């Protein structure tokens, strides 16, 4: 469903250690909002819902809600480091357009509700 690169996996594991809880899930989802209508939600969660999809990569338990799953199919999450700092990148083959600030997108089947950037 989604792929987490090795670099992103290391970074996520470091962040989990900082949280001090080895039982956290990485929740990846999509919600309405942003300039183009949809935006990503990524964070830690202590519980999974009964209808969440669960997978594991690099020893990280990942959960995705059923509604977000089709939009996230084929997504690659990476972590890039540069002289200006580092950050996560998301490559979504389902996105057909994104906003100039890079924080939102839309797909051919889901546009969401655009907001002001």
Automatic annotation (TrEMBL):
Domain Core stretches: 2-102
SUPFAM superfamilies: HesB-like domain (SSF89360)
Any one Pfam family match given in the protein's UniProt record, by short name: Fe-S_biosyn
Xref: PROSITE patterns: HESB (PS01152)
Database matches in Gene3D superfamilies: HesB-like domain
NCBIfam families cross-referenced by the UniProt entry: iron-sulfur cluster assembly accessory protein
Protein's UniProt name: Iron-sulfur cluster assembly accessory protein
Taxonomic classification: Bacteria, Bacillati, Bacillota, Bacilli, Bacillales
